[in-house]
Known about the structure:
Elements: H1 16-48
Protein name: Chemokine-like factor isoform X3
Organism: Ursus maritimus
Amino acid sequence: MMATLKPKHRPFCFSVKGHVKMLRLVFGLLAAVCCIADGVLIYRKLLFNPSGPYQKHSIHDKI
């Protein structure tokens, strides 16, 4: 009779699939945080400066 060797059980976090899934989770969370921060910054910019960075009058009006 041949003895069947049972593969050694590795914890999920030490397997290759575990690393890939954890990296996906980290990059997904990072992307979500960046999207939220970008939205907040754009909202603040539009709220406090709705006309944009450009002035309506020319530089010659000041002189």
